[in-house]
Structure formats: C-alpha cells, structure tokens
Design a protein that fits this description.
Number of strands: 14
Distance between the termini: 8 Å
Strand order of the largest sheet: 3-6-1-14
Shape: globular
Radius of gyration: 18 Å
Structural class: alpha+beta
Strand content: 35-45%
Order of helices and strands: EEEEEEHHEHEHEEEEEE
Largest sheet: 4 strands, antiparallel
Number of helices: 4
C-alpha cells in the first residue's frame, strides 16, 4: 500500500537552541520511500547525518523566534504484518554482529529484571516467535493502552507496576521481556495508518528466524500500514526531536497518514 505521511511542528524559541531531528523515513527491507520533502522556516544551515542505528537525523541551531518544520513522505509499505509461528529462536552465536546490542539492558528496558516474569508468560511456548507472540498477548491483556497518559518516557519496571501507559511504554516492557529471554528486540517509532487518535506511534520488533518481526500490543488484529522513521534500544534513541538548553514551547504539532 502507498501512504503519504506528514508531520508539522512549530516552536517558540527564546534563545538560539541546538536541535536534533529524526523525522525522515528511510528506504529498507520493509518500506520504500518514493518522495520525501523537508522544509524548515526560517531558512537556516542544517547538517544531516546517519546515527549508529542507521536513522536519518538533522542538526541545526534554531534562532530566536518562531520555528516551523514540515515533512511529508510518500512511502510504499505492506498492508499486512508478517506472521510466522514457526520462526525459531536464533542462538546467540549465530546472531549478526549489529543485532547483538539489542540483547542488552538499556535505560528504559531493564531486561535483567524480568527473567522470572518472561519465563512465566512464555511457559510451554516453543522458543522464538511463539514466545514473543505470548508476550504481546500478555501485554494486551495486562497493560492498559491509554493515549496521553504518559508525557515522559516510562521504564519497563514502572510500566509493569502501574499497568497502563502510552504506546512507547508498552513497547518498553515488551522489549525488556524479549531481551530477558535472549531474544533481540528494538524500539521503532514512526507512523501507523488509521491510528486513533492520530499521532506519532511506537512499537517493537523482535529478531527471530533470521529477520525482524513487528509486534504492537496497542493494536488488535495487526493489518500493516506501518512506516518506520527511527530504530533504537528504547525511547532515548528515537525521539523525533531533541533540543538542548532551556525548554522550548511546542506551539503546534500535527501528524497525518493517508492512503494514496
């Protein structure tokens, strides 16, 4: 399916402020970006770079005053989420080097604290896809997905304790549970067709059977329409924007996804 995804942001800048953005999706195995538009006003020098996870990032210093950012991309992505209950667990010694980092605990995914819970959730499941599917189902039944209930990133331990959260919170707990079983898992941020309420979205992927599979406990009956913008260990790696210095006022944010 072809999707047009867009994000518009506006800020009120009190003093010159360094920014790093992550708003441009890149082509890869699961999506193809045919057209990409990026505009910023006022016109200022921008440096684009690729971070250690392969995400496209833009850095600049925003001058005092009003700052507006507009991005739109036409992306071909699957209308379905791949499912393979026979996808096996990949032994550590056979994992690609660039996947190994997704086995480790991280700031918001304290996977070294969840071994007992992960084993209880996945008891009698065949190692691999069936374990992650059981984790996804447990999240869906146990952790309430409440959009707008969390402003700041919440760690897996905190989410498990309070039993509710936004999309990134459920992803954090899912990632921690997977990693505690030695299944590589990573955070993904981007767009989702027909997401309600519409906003930027977060989900997680697990490396099973030699490839990455999508899991999203916030949605029933996954139907595809995902457009990834950033990948990382957790939310600390995939913020759509970071600003450094005094807090800036976000005066406008609009996210849209439409089929074309």
């Amino acid at each position: 399916m072809w999707l047009r995804v867009s994000c518009n942001l506006a800020f009120d800048i009190e003093i010159p402020t360094p920014f790093i953005l992550m708003l441009r999706p890149r082509s890869g195995a699961q999506q193809w970006v045919e057209r990409d538009e990026f505009r910023i006003a006022p016109s200022i020098p921008i440096i684009e770079f690729t971070d250690r996870y392969g995400n496209l990032c833009q850095r600049f210093i925003a001058p005092q005053g009003n700052l507006t950012i507009h991005t739109v991309s036409d992306v071909k992505t699957s209308a379905f989420v791949d499912v393979d209950f026979n996808a096996p667990f990949v032994e550590i010694q056979h994992l690609p080097n660039d996947v190994l980092c997704y086995l480790l605990p991280s700031r918001y995914c304290e996977s070294d604290r969840f071994n007992d819970l992960a084993n209880a959730i996945t008891v009698n499941k065949i190692p691999g896809y069936q374990q992650v599917f059981a984790i996804e189902e447990w999240l869906r039944k146990t952790i309430s997905y409440i959009p707008g209930s969390s402003v700041y990133p919440t760690s897996a331990i905190e989410v498990n304790q309070k039993e509710f959260g936004v999309c990134r919170d459920l992803a954090h707990l899912g990632i921690a549970l997977c990693r505690s079983l030695s299944i590589p898992a990573r955070m993904v941020v981007g767009y989702l067709h027909n997401l309600k309420p519409m906003d930027m979205h977060a989900w997680f992927e697990a490396y099973i059977g030699g490839r990455w599979y999508t899991f999203d406990a916030t949605q029933l009956g996954l139907k595809g329409g995902y457009v990834a913008v950033g990948y990382g260990l957790d939310a600390a790696d995939v913020a759509i924007f970071n600003q450094f210095g005094p807090i800036v006022n976000t005066t406008y944010q609009d996210v849209a996804v439409s089929q074309i």
